[in-house]
Amino acid sequence: MRSPRTIAAVAAITIAGVGLLAGCSGSGSGDSSDGKVHITVASLIPGSDKAAFKAFDDRVKEFEKANPNIVIKSEEYQWTGPTFSTQLAGGTLPDVFNVPFTDSQSLLQAGQLADITKEVKALSYAGKFNENVLAVAKSGDKIYGIPYGPYAMGLSYNREIFQKAGLDPDKPPTTWDEVRQDAKTISEKVPGVAGYMQMTQGNTGGWELTTTTYARGGRMETTDGGKTKVTTNNPVTKEALQFLHDLRWEDNSVGSNFLLDWSGINQAFGAGQIAMYPSGSDVLTSLVQQNNVDPKTYGLTMLPIDSSNKDAGVLVGGNVAAVSPKSNEAQKTAAVKWIDFYYMQKLLNQDQAIADAKVLAKSNQPVGVPTLPVFDKATYDQTMSWIKPEVNIPLENVAPFTDKIFDANLVPEPNKHTQELYGALDAVVQAVLTDKNANIDQLLTKVDSDIQKLVDADK
Questions:
Q1: Distance CA 209, CA 429 (A)
Q2: Do 78 and 97 touch, CB atoms closer than 8 A?
Q3: Are 37 and 334 in contact (CB under 8 A)?
């Protein structure tokens, strides 16, 4: 649920992937009696395995060795739409925290992200950013964060379950009809497994409904002459919901748990209870760290894209590393140094790229997980060549995605009241899965009306 404006190409590595928005505690105390600058930083989400935390701690030690005047305290946290505002208002965020692309603009406009323009422009590569990506953290010429880990939505699938159902894991579905048929086959031949499922709560239901709507060529919002119209009640979204309805009520291939958020569906997938689900292209990192998924059993392919519709495309998102507005000047400088070290240098510096990859590989963390580039494809290709000896995931298992994403139409998430829109659509997705006679038209009409009021109130 994170969005840039437009992004090109694929893949970079990051220890904290799609949904791995981490860290939470009070802002650091800055300069202290020891004469050093103290800052708190986002680490990993609660529940990540010990090896992942060790890998993170090893990077902290490297940073502190290179910057002896800075002391890092790391904090665990998982960002979720419904709780983030409360935590932000309560002053419990660290000096360096992370927000989705979708929220960065509203937060910076509200003065909840520090202006780090001076610090970012002092970076040697400041002019190398993909401006379409950096735009999510800018207002005019001011910079309020550094984007990292952009990703595209794909279709994750369990290769072992495909084999058990008599399906070829090297030939994943390429159309929605094939997704439906494979899901039905799996549910019939592998007891206790949902062939396909989508997320439904915590704003993720609306996020994934938007994802599948985009793939079919629809839009949840349109803008004309600077005016935004909420358009969830459109034929394409209805088609996406009808698809879910048919899998649930005709095929019985989506299981029986209809209250799944990001963590919940990852857990179910990791436990072998779900064979296919839409996901961020970088989700394997979390699946390994939190759900003990063996990369050999994991497959990633493109979501089926309606080639007959020129607007059909892949939803893209990402994270922004931001700094608390409560941080003093010394902390801001230290915070950007940390962001540069932890998130950026492994994409730009050969020694840092190799060091980061070695730390991950040594801790049995996945190296080579597909995301999208913060800079450009040439930089990505160079980074991948540096870390090639450390890549420890079967690249052929994600090739159905990486071979095609370069040519895909990449589409940003809706940019007006995104989280409220997603939350309202959660209820629609749940209704379709729990009420065979749910009135889709009536449900979407209400969403349009409710969210349009919020959009209009912004004027």
A1: 8
A2: no
A3: yes
Residue 377 has a pLDDT of 79
AA identity, residue 49: D
pLDDT score, position 357: 92
- Please tell me the distance from the alpha carbon of residue 184 to that of residue 173, in angstroms, as a whole number: 12
Task: Tell me what the mean pLDDT of segment 184-206 comes to.
Answer: 96
* CB distance 219 to 213 below 8 Å: yes
H or E stretch covering 73: strand 70-75
Beta strands in 214-287 (DSSP E): 221-224, 227-230, 276-280
Which tokens in the block code for residue 123?
A: 């970076």
* pLDDT score at 107: 83
Q: What does the block give as tokens for 117?
A: 């323009």
Q: How far apart are CA 399 and CA 256, in angstroms?
A: 31
Spatial contact of 423 and 81, defined as CB atoms under 8 Å apart: yes
Q: Could you give the angle at which helices 50-66 and 350-362 cross, rounded to 10 degrees?
A: 150
Query: How do beta strands 37-42 and 227-230 pair?
Result: unpaired
Phi then psi dihedrals of residue 298, to 5 deg: -95, 135
Listed range (33-47, 252-266, 357-371, 434-448) with the worst mean pLDDT: 33-47
In 76-170, the DSSP E strands lie at 96-100, 138-139, 142-143, 146-158
What gap in Å lies between CA 268 and CA 283, rounded to an integer?
A: 14
Euclidean distance between CA atoms 421 and 208, whole angstroms: 12
For 14-36, the pLDDT digits (tens) are 333 333 333 333 444 455 678 89
| All residues at 6 or more sequence positions from 313 whose CB lies less than 8 Å from its CB, including other chains | 214, 215, 217, 305, 408, 409, 410, 411
d(CA 140, CA 115): 12
In Å, how far from its chain's centre is CA 277?
Answer: 14
| Secondary structure (3-state) at 212 | helix
What are 246's two structure tokens? 């048919």
Residues 6+ positions from 360 with CB-CB distance below 8 Å = 13, 15, 55, 366, 367, 390
Residue 405 DSSP one-character state: G
Lowest mean pLDDT among 7-21, 192-206, 387-401: 7-21
- Worst-scoring range by mean pLDDT, 52-61, 138-147, 379-388, 415-424? 52-61
Look at residue 274 and give its three-state secondary structure: strand
Looking at residue 164, its pLDDT comes to: 97
- Number of helical H runs and strand E runs in the chain: 18, 13
What is the residue-averaged pLDDT of the chain? 87
Any idea what the Cα angle at residue 50 is, between residues 47 and 55, rounded to 5°?
115
Q: What share of the chain is helix, strand, coil (3-state, %, to 5)?
A: 45, 15, 40
pLDDT in tens, 403-447: 998 888 888 888 888 889 999 999 999 999 999 999 999 999 999
